[in-house]
Amino acid sequence: MATRPNRPTMSQARLFAQLIAEFEPNVHRAFMASVTDLQANVDWRALLTALEQGDFEGAVAALNIDAAAWAEYSSIMTEVYAKAGASTAALIVATGAGDIGMRFRMTNPRAERWIRENVAERVVGFTQEQIEVARTVIANGYARGQGPRNIAVDLAGRTSGRGTARTGGVLGLDGPRAARLQAVTEGMRSAEGVRGLVIEGQDGRVSMRYRVNAATAQRILRAHKAGTEVPADERAISERQYSNALLKDRADTIAETETGNAVMSARDDEWHQLAESQGLDRTAVIKTWQHRRGAAKEHRPDHLAMSGQSVRGLDTPFVFPDGVAMQHAHDPAGGPRHIIRCGCDTTYRLDISGELR
Description:
Layout lengths: L10 H30 L3 H9 L3 H7 L8 H24 L14 H35 L4 H9 L18 H13 L3 H7 E3 L5 E3 L5 H13 L5 H47 L6 E6 L10 H6 L3 E3 L5 E2 L5 E2 L8 H5 L5 E6 L7
Antiparallel strand pairs: 1-2, 3-4, 3-7, 5-6
């Protein structure tokens, strides 16, 4: 059962905030670099040829989707975990809870498992996800009777001139975001599609079925009023703008979610390493959930209600009203509902100062 002990030290909260501020932008840049890599390595000629021939697998292969595209992301995530663990070890020593010479060990089984599950396997997941998104776009394109070039643009975007980077397309997007992009992109291509993108209220007011950038909404609503498709030149601009907005949202979500996971998981790992190396009484550890106001765009009421509550025992979970049990904030066991873009923190302290055995 959760208790409310004395207020824990704020130095852990400050450390968490500092690490998030330092590494979140780096994770964001690393993910975007992987998308740039994917776009730059599309074999456009082979892609068009495969699509013209109805060669489904050849078209997917021409995209050259490979786990190596996420090399920088993998490196940064490993660095975040290592830095957070080392910083936690230094803080524990500084407060007198650990011996001098105590270090965070990346070869520890818990650390190795975290890297495998949250870096290596995550990248495999990204790769497979991109392949499945590409398959869906190609299948939908054929089903709608789209030409090869339209399908290719939907997949890989377009360039604004010779030698320029590609923008737009679904590369880098997850399934739900790619589906929204496809719905808006396809909808703008016909008057009927435009009508499907607009919701008409009983009071005569109109609104967008999907949340899009303001300029795209204006173009769609203008076409809806005229009873036409969105003009091709305007549509190309909106496809790029909407794709970029969805991609930025995806990168923001990954950066916020995965950086928090790495920092908090490394802190928890270091406390387990402390218990194993110095014979710490695991039941003497008090964990406290901290809700950082202003950290998340949307507060979760149950996370806010949990703030300040503590559990006794290094292995004792926090249990939420929905039955979900989490060892700490950002624990992947919480599932998407509890971890995506969460801004919470968990602090640790010993019940009896300096008594490790």
